Amino acid sequence: MKKLKIIWDAIIPNNPVLIISIGLCSTIAVSNSVQSALLMTFAFALVQIPSNVIVSSIRKITPNEIRVPIFVTVIAAFTTIAALISEAYFNAIYQIIKLYILLVVVNCIIIGRAEAYAYHNGIFDSFLDGVGNTIGYGLVLLAIAIVREFIGKGSLAGIQLMPDSYQPMLLMVLPPAGFIMIGILTGAIETYLRNKEGKR
C-alpha cells in the first residue's frame, strides 16, 4: 500500500498541474487535440521515469554543488531520445508539437521531481514517483484534450464524430480554453480532496 501511495499521491493529492500548478505551458499548448496529448504524454514518460531512476541511482556520488546541471544533463539526454523516437514513429503529430517536446528538457515537473524526490529517495520509489507523475500529467492532458477537441472541432483523435452541420466552438481550440479547463479541473480536485478530508 505504501508503494501504491507514492503513485496515487502524484496523480491526485499532489498532481503536478492541478495542485502544484507547474508544467502549465505545455499542458495548455498541446491539449487542443487528443493525438497531441497522447504523444506529449508518451514523450514525457520517456523522460520523467528514466530520469528519476538515473538521478536516484547516482545521488550518492553526485556533488551537491553541481547537482542541478547534472540533473539537466540527464534529462536532456532522455529528451533527445524521446524526440528522436517521436519523430521516427509519429512524425506528423511530432511536427505540430515539436517545440514542446524539445522543451521537456526544462519542464518544471521533471526537474522538480529530480530535485525534490529522486535525489532523496531510492531507485524503486523514484521509479514509482515517475510513473505517478506521468499518469497525473497525462490524465490532465487527455481530460482537457477530449473536451477541447470534441467541442472545438467535433472530433476525437482526428476522427470526425459530429455531422457536417455541427458548428464548432472555435474558442475551445485556443489557449484561453486551456486555462478555463485547468480551472474547472482544479476546482473539482480541490473539492474532492476537501470532502475526503472532512470525512476523516
From TrEMBL:
GO annotation, cellular component aspect: endomembrane system; plasma membrane
Keywords: Membrane, Translocase, Transmembrane, Transmembrane helix, Transport
Pfam families xref list: Rnf-Nqr
Principal localisation: membrane
Annotated localization: Endomembrane system
Database matches in NCBIfam families: PRK12405.1
Protein name: Electron transport complex subunit RsxE
Organism: Caldisericum exile
